[in-house]
Amino acid sequence: MSYTEVYKTLPFDFLSDIVYQWERFAQQFEQLGTRVVIGRFGIILSNEGGALQTMKLPYEYYIGGKLGSGQQWYSWIHINDLIQAILFLINNESASGPFNLTAPIPERQNLFGYTLARAMHKPHETWVPSLAMRLILGQMSTVVLDTQKVLPNKIQALGFQFKYSNLKMALEDLISK
Q1: CATH classification of the domain holding 59
Q2: Between β-strands 76-78 and 43-45, what pairing exists: parallel, antiparallel or unpaired?
Q3: CA distance 102 to 136
Q4: What is the chain's pLDDT, residue by residue, as a tens digit (177 residues)?
Q5: Which domain holds residue 51?
Q6: What are the UniProt keywords, alphabetically (predicted)?
Q7: Around 97, how many Cα atoms within 13 Å sit in the side-chain half-sphere?
Q8: Domains contained in the chain, number
């Protein structure tokens, strides 16, 4: 199932509860006549810290591979596309409400990891079972194991063009720097 901006956020786990509370708080400003634009961010890929640095770590030690089933969706976005999308939404007066700020082509975790390994010239051979991930990460394991296929339909309908819609291009750009 793919999630677009028409889906309302409801709290059912750690991450969705944060999103639900944040969006509910932000929507209060609409009553004051303020245009409210809510960004629902995917995994932000950047060399300035964050998820990519954490994802690269096991591959740097030659132990990167599949996490859990490997079938979970990773909805990601290159930092440059994220910045351009935010500027686009600020400057577009017709933009309001929630926007999924993710690349238009999400990837399954196993393929994401394989693509990252190729960009780093490292193997993608290990496997960490879901149970081990839940024991190690606790509640935070939901961020890695319980994911959603999120699509940026609304921002694309307004005419936004992604420079990095392809994961291979995005990772090669970031890894080469």
Answers
A1: 3.40.50.720
A2: parallel
A3: 27
A4: 788 888 777 777 777 788 889 889 998 999 999 999 999 999 999 999 889 999 999 999 999 999 999 999 999 999 999 999 999 999 999 999 999 999 999 999 999 999 999 999 999 999 999 999 999 988 888 878 888 899 999 999 999 999 999 999 999 999 987
A5: 2-175
A6: Cell cycle, Cell division
A7: 12
A8: 1
